[in-house]
Amino acid sequence: MMLRGLILLCSIVSLSVFAHADACEKSEPACILDAAWSAGLILPDSKRMSLAQDFLEVARLAHEPELLSHWEKRLGQRVSDGSEYPDYGWQKAEPILRSGGVEQLISVARSRQVPLSFGRSDALLSAGKRLYATEPAAAERLNDVLLELSRGASAFETPILAHAAAELAMTRCDMARMRQAVARTDAPQNLRYALWRTRITGNWGDLLNQIRSIENDEDTRDVRRVLAGYRAILELGYCDQSASAIGG
Fold first, then answer.
1. How many CB atoms lie under 10 A from the CB of residue 150?
2. SS3 of the chain: helix, strand, coil, percent, to 5
3. Contacts 24+ apart (CB under 8 A), 45-49
4. How far is 142 from 106, CA to CA, in rounded Å?
5. What's the pLDDT tens digit per position in 139-198?
6. What contacts 24+ positions apart, CB below 8 Å, involve 67-71?
7. Are 231 and 199 in contact (CB under 8 A)?
């Protein structure tokens, strides 16, 4: 009996955390889209339909043809071609990195020299994301600099730098730095950050119910945050759970 109980326990533990998080028997992307759509039902029709391409982009990234077809029919439009927009942060950071390396980029960002008199958060974030795969220590250094700059910045720039620090930490699967950064943003409780934490931990908890319970009937901001947060999971995948997330 003990052996049978152990086998049963192992079977239960091995099931997806997501499957137990909320009552949804569809694929994970389908459940997220349904929950976000439920939240958007309280919006005026015109505002809800302005979210169409955001929903379709998530469906496209899920690589489930039937899911994409379902949402295209539901929304009455096709997903856009997915053309990439220029990475302005990288356009600013790359020449500096090429000429002087990471420390030069940090120096220019700290002193607000041209071309980083504006947009230094974008440049540091883009550089960190691109360096992470090949130079993880450099990406970590840039994450720390973003956090440092957020502490001494103006009230206007602090949440911008903190958001960039949170995004880089999420990309790096660094929960400790992400917590620090999110605390300095202007909306630490928003669901984009909750989804980013889920990417790191793999733990959904009752997040689907939280999405369904969004009560903002005035603008699309909260639903957009959900779709943007989940997009990171689709684009980057979950962090490696076989080794503890940094600072987890």
1. 23
2. 65, 0, 30
3. 47/219, 47/220, 48/220, 49/75
4. 8
5. 999 999 999 999 999 999 999 999 999 999 999 999 999 999 999 999 999 999 999 999
6. 67/27, 67/29, 67/30, 67/33, 71/33
7. no
- Give the torsion sign (CA, 106, 239, 81, 31): negative
The residues near 123 (Cβ < 8 Å, ≥ 6 apart) are 89, 90, 92, 93, 96, 105, 109, 116
* d(C-alpha 76, C-alpha 66), whole Å: 15
- As given in the structure block, the two tokens for residue 106 are 């940090």
* DSSP single-letter state for residue 174: B
List CB contacts of 105: < 8 A, sequence separation 6 or more.
93, 96, 97, 123, 124, 127, 142
Q: Whole-angstrom distance between the N-terminal and C-terminal Cα of the chain?
A: 36
d(CA 151, CA 209): 34
Return phi, psi of residue 174, to 5°.
-110, 95
Residue 170 CB-half CA count within 13 A: 27
